[in-house]
Amino acid sequence: MDKAYFLKRLALIPLTLFGIMAINFLIVQLAPGGPVEQLLAKAEQGAAPSAVGRIAGGAGDVAAGNGLYRGGQGMQDDLRRELEARFGFDQPAGKRFLIMMKNYALFDFGKSFYQDKSVIRLILDKLPVSVSLGVFSTLLIYLISIPLGIRKAVRKSMPFDRNTSWMLIVAHAVPSFLLAIFLLIFFAGGRYLSWFPLRGIVSDGWADMSAGRQILDYLWHMALPVLSLTIGGLAGLTFLTKNAFLEELGKQYCRTARAKGCTQRQVLWGHVFRNAMLIVIAGFPSMLIGMLFTGSVLIEVIFSLDGLGLLGFEAVQNRDYPVVFGTLYLFALLGLALNLISDYIYTRVDPRIHFEARKQ
Predict the structure, then answer these.
(1) What average pLDDT does range 286-304 have in this prediction?
(2) pLDDT for the residue 163
(3) Does 216 reside within a domain?
(4) CA–CA separation, 178 vs 106, rounded Å?
(5) Are residues 155 and 242 in the same domain?
(6) How far is CA 301 from CA 29, 98, 216, in A?
(7) What Rg value do the Cα atoms of the chain yield, rounded?
(8) Which of 175, 177, 225, 235 is the right S-S partner for 298, CB 3.0 to 4.6 Å?
């Protein structure tokens, strides 16, 4: 990759990140409801004092909402103003956004409104579950899709190729969360089989088990979530592998190798494999980031896995803005960085790939 282009892409990361945060911040301003309204609702039920005491300590750490909070219209004015001041919502939205971005640039994400922990600590606590889901499912997709794609390329237009193609298309068309529900019904104590646990990442008493049993119990709980993510992700990589091998098999050097007496196996593994796999392997970072931060959200919610997806889902439900914006900032930053790394890998493994126009 050209150094000037790389530096240009690197310089665009802060601007892109700023735009992502600004758009989501604006959406929050337009959405009704928020932590202030939730506390006011609890106040009407006589449950607000303890909640206010727990939340107010971290209220000024982030900015969300605006001075004229839509969800607060028509509520008790004095109490609403007091709560907005504690949360920091009494300042202009633009000022709060700039303060938030300044703090985030220093990786200061504040504390959760509803948990007595910093946002960084919450993310670090939940990260192992999401990383496990992403890594296991990505590795499984590669282990299945690459051999399957090669076999489909070798047997192009044969019954095996046609049958596996429609099976992959159907698997890709079924959303992963719907597949997860089916797996729960059939294999996790629904109306049929009870082979796998219904929820959670480990069984009760896991800490008292031996190391071997802990590993087996962990894998037992991860089986259905990983399978839900893997099945839906097979199609793209399988067809990419197939098309890459078909393209290489049709090139002149393959015909020359056959003319010299090389067998199909020698041509496939001695000449084609290395060239065809470049584009497949280079896409690994992009697939991993997709599995980590997009594909696993609903899966974690369905299987009650205490990971980043469930953390984000609960934060949005509870209007826990420090967690919402903190995780969004980190995920967006990591995604932009990995996309740049992925593009760099593409250019390293295949010099023919250029992201800038060639100079005439």
Answers:
(1) 73
(2) 92
(3) yes
(4) 40
(5) yes
(6) 26, 32, 22
(7) 26
(8) 177
- Please give the average per-residue pLDDT across 192-202, as a whole number: 79
| Residue 111, domain member (yes or no) | no
Position 72 scores a pLDDT of: 42
Has residue 353 been placed in a domain? Answer: no
The total number of structural domains in the chain stands at 2
279, 346 contact by CB (below 8 A): yes
8-state DSSP, 263:
-
Same domain, 98 and 221: no
In the three-class reduction of DSSP (H, G, I as helix; E, B as strand; rest coil), residue 188 is classed as: strand
Read out DSSP for 79-113?
A: HHHHHHHHHTTTS-HHHHHHHHHHHHHTT---B-S
Alpha-carbon distance 33 to 52, whole Å?
16
| Per-residue model confidence as pLDDT tens digits over 28-66 | 777 666 666 666 666 666 544 444 444 444 433 433 444
Residue 254: which residues within 8 A CB-CB, separation 6 or more? 248, 267, 271, 272
| Integer angstrom CA distances of residue 225 from 1, 73, 290, 327 | 37, 42, 15, 22
pLDDT category at 144 given cuts 50, 70, 90 is very high
In a domain, 351, yes or no: no
Residues 145 and 226 grouped into a single domain: yes
Rounded distance between C-alpha atoms, residue 177 and residue 309, angstroms? 13
> How many helices and strands in the chain, by DSSP H and E?
16, 0
Rounded to 5 degrees, what are φ and ψ at 203? -85, 165
Tokens standing for 34? Answer: 């928020």
The two tokens of residue 49 are 């004092």
The CA distance from 211 to 219, in Å, is 13
Are residue 97 and residue 231 in the same domain, yes or no? no
Q: What is the pLDDT of residue 148?
A: 92
- Same domain assignment for residues 212 and 309: yes
**pLDDT tens column, 222-246:** 888 889 888 888 888 899 888 888 8
Domain of residue 312, CATH code: 1.10.3720.10
Q: What is the pTM of this model?
A: 0.72
Is there a single domain that holds both residue 25 and residue 67? yes
Quote the pLDDT of residue 305.
82
* Both structure tokens of 219: 């894998």
In the chain, pLDDT over 70 holds for what percent of residues?
Answer: 75
Amino acid found at 312: G
| Spatial separation of the C-alpha atoms in residues 282 and 272, rounded to whole Å | 16
Of 95 and 63, the one with more pLDDT: 95
